Amino acid sequence: MEPVARADWFKFRSVDFTQLDALEDCLDAFTARTLDGVVIRRVYPEEYMREISARIERHEPPFHVFPRVADPLRARQGKHLYGITLVAAPRDLSEYFRVAEGFRSHCRELFLDGADYEARLKSIFEVLGGGRPVELPRNPDGQGYMPATIRILPAGAAIDLHCDNNLSHHPSYTHLKTVCDVNDQLSFFLTLNAPGSGGELVVYSRRWSDSDDVETQYVVSKDASMVEGCESLALKPGPGDLILFAGGRIYHRVAPTEGNRPRYTIGGFLARANEGRALYYWS
Ligand SMILES: O=C(O)CCC(=O)C(=O)O
Q1: What's the pLDDT tens digit per position in 45-66?
Q2: CATH superfamily, region 12-282
């Protein structure tokens, strides 16, 4: 992790995975807005991340590629995902839940000779949640949501300005909203491969407000003018580092990657159950 400038508008903590207990129950601090982000360093060894990245590069195991185009090889040359997000999936969500099942088994295969990704993330969230149960949401038919997506940004690719509370305006969130409080969701991602330069997560001092969204509509990216003149911080976790931040209420983007090393991350969102103590994660 490169050094970050401290800012009073972005309350941030960074610990090594071996000191995870120092973050016990820190989700309460997120809720109380006394904490905006944490980085947990070395959740996986850097060398293992290189091996995982090599598999991703070879498309092994053969994850579902999004966007879905006639020539998957071509899709893999540009910005793409392994898996599919809730908002990108066709509206009846049957494809989403089918892809989710395949993703979970491919993800187990991807991490087969190391600590299982989903199990490790769950165990981390359990500590951060002070012992709350951590669960994957399921639809009324019992099908599991996507636990994460793998995001692949080749040279020059970026993720434009957005604020994840806006996601809840999407019609595909109708069921999930009955399960957990998506209105103050946290964002998390594990860096698998970092580009030589660029690819930082840039967070802005501007906070989300209801009135930022036009007639409660979902928009993929917000106009950059919304953060003009705002303070910002660039965070660049290294391979094996996990970041969790208040992406629901903090405007953020991913800066364009530079050089010939792509940016690979795996991640999703985390929110509290509407009833009971559980935490839910999805993508
Ligand atoms: O870097 C990533 O994988 C995504 C970052 C992001 O925009 C988010 O978590 O909302």
Answers
A1: 999 999 999 999 999 999 999 9
A2: q2cbj1_9rhob like domain (2.60.120.620)
